[in-house]
Queue: 2 jobs
Job 1
Amino acid sequence: MFGISFSKVLLLVAVVAAIWFGFRWFQRWEKERRERSEREEEGSRLGRDASARSDDRQTEVMTACRICGTYVAQGARSCGRPRCPFPG
Ligand SMILES: [Zn+2]
């Protein structure tokens, strides 16, 4: 009688241990999966920000010449026409 119940206890312990380790493994796997997807989201978000920023910078530094009407980069030289706002 004792032998049967002892083996049942052993079986129960084994089952509980298996569930426990399986749960721990699942938690670790879930955590790694979540962190990986968060990193990927962060990366794509940073990529979008960077491309948006570079677009802003591009429009920022482009300045229209009032005289010749062309868009030139800020700090560009004069087009040569009189009254051109850019330094010749
Ligand atoms: Zn000009």
Job 2
Amino acid sequence: MSLFFRIQFRFYKMRILFIGDIFGNTGRRVLAQRLQSLIKENSIDVCIANGENAAGGRGLTSNIFKKLRKYGVHIVTGGNHSFSIPDNEYSFLDTPTVLRPLNYPPGNIGHGSTVFELGDGRTIGVINLQGRTFVHEALDDPFRIGKSAIDQIKEQTSHILVDFHAEATSEKMAFAQYVDGQVSAVLGTHTHVQTADEKILPGGTAFISDAGMTGPEDSVIGMKKEQVLRRFLLQTHVRFDPADKGPMINGVIIETDDTTAKAVSIKRVFERIIFQ
Ligand SMILES: [Fe+2]
Ligand SMILES: [Fe+2]
């Protein structure tokens, strides 16, 4: 086979690994142990992870971001916990490969989208949005803001992935339908429970309502189950601490066509991990 054909074959598809909300120390240990081998086994070109809970269950810090980079994550997205860090740490949110939802009111530090260049010269745009249904923050409209970001990024690259961080399945699904055919993938995050509805929409956009959580399965969405239960039973304030049992990795692997940027496959990743 000539070099030309080998190069064409190598670049035929982009393989994207997206990791669901990394939760606390357990989620980080999972990635330290498993991410490199997962990347190798699946010939992953780019790894994007939601890190809004990577620091003790709330937010992401500069040091933890550096660790995630070392494990193999290229871009970290956020959510409603992106700003749940001491405000003297906010400046770190200005890092181009760290995103927080784009539709927070203007004036906030940080970026809601980026265009990332892979080692081989290909590019992918990543947009982070937050839904408004059942959330506390009074955010700008993720639909219109998301659409305008897509139109802008399209001028630089046709591969675009959206992390739509939201509580309501309907809002995530509606957004995916709204931009079907215009982006390679719309992936839901925030609920910490992986859904089994992964699909490719008619226009070629890969979709899952929620990619799940990379963290302690033996918990209530990451926190110690006894504490969460106590709050539900007593309806008073109870401090929540990250759980540490039942390590698992959740996410999806998407393949896109290099020429059309449409998704050709989406596969869920759900593995229970035994720490070595
Ligand atoms: Fe989360
Ligand atoms: Fe969240």
